[in-house]
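pls design
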């Protein structure tokens, strides 16, 4: 199994906080976001992780190097903006086992989801599985619509409706066939240009603590409540 962490975004929502520090190196408790994520990947036996790096890639490499917490780090550096889908497409060229499933993590999330349990639900001939995390207010998130057997029916754009629900939790596990859905161009969105094309993508529903730290108020909350995320 392979693993990719998406950490190449500009992080404009965090303003000055990430002008010189990559978002994935922001400290939450006594660890960086990267450390939290590597810990989770290590729990399922991952030993090599591809970092989809772009903005501040040199600073990331200079700080972290090629090994962290016992895991080997491989840098897939973007020389231009690729979007979430383009970054995954580019990073898949660097994985060691291209015919095996690949775990993809957005580089700004913390969660106590049991990743090994999520892995166990992958159907071998499916496109893969996406984390559906429950939040009290989905207004600022893309929400997931799926059937009783957890088959993804639609990925809905941010609707601005204040209600609770399950949204895109930013963890995907793709089987190798996902590549057939990628468009020919380099830059594209996984959420809006690939998910709608997938015919056999499933949702792993979770009510466990989850947060993305991509805006100052959520980052502040995570720093004040990080102990909620200490269990894998």
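designed seq:
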């Amino acid at each position: 199994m392979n693993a990719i962490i998406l950490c190449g975004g500009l992080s404009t929502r965090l303003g000055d906080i990430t002008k010189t520090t990559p978002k994935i190196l922001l400290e939450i408790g006594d660890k960086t976001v990267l450390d939290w994520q590597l810990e989770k990947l290590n729990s399922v036996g991952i030993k090599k992780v591809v970092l989809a790096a772009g903005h501040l890639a040199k600073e990331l490499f200079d700080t972290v190097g090629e090994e962290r917490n016992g895991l080997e780090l491989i840098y897939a550096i973007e020389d231009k903006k690729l979007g979430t889908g383009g970054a995954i497409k580019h990073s898949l060229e660097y994985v060691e086992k291209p015919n095996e499933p690949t775990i993809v993590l957005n580089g700004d999330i913390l969660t106590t989801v049991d990743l090994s349990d999520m892995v166990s639900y992958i159907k071998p001939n499916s496109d893969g599985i996406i984390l559906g995390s429950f939040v009290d207010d989905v207004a600022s998130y893309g929400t997931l619509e799926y059937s009783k057997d957890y088959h993804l029916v639609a990925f809905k754009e941010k609707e601005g409706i204040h209600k609770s629900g399950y949204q895109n939790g930013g963890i995907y596990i793709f089987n190798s066939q996902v590549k057939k859905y990628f468009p020919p161009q380099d830059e594209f969105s996984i959420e809006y240009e690939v998910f709608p094309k997938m015919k056999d993508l499933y949702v792993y529903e979770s009510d466990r603590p989850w947060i993305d730290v991509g805006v100052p108020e959520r980052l502040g909350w995570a720093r004040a409540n990080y102990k909620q995320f200490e269990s894998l």
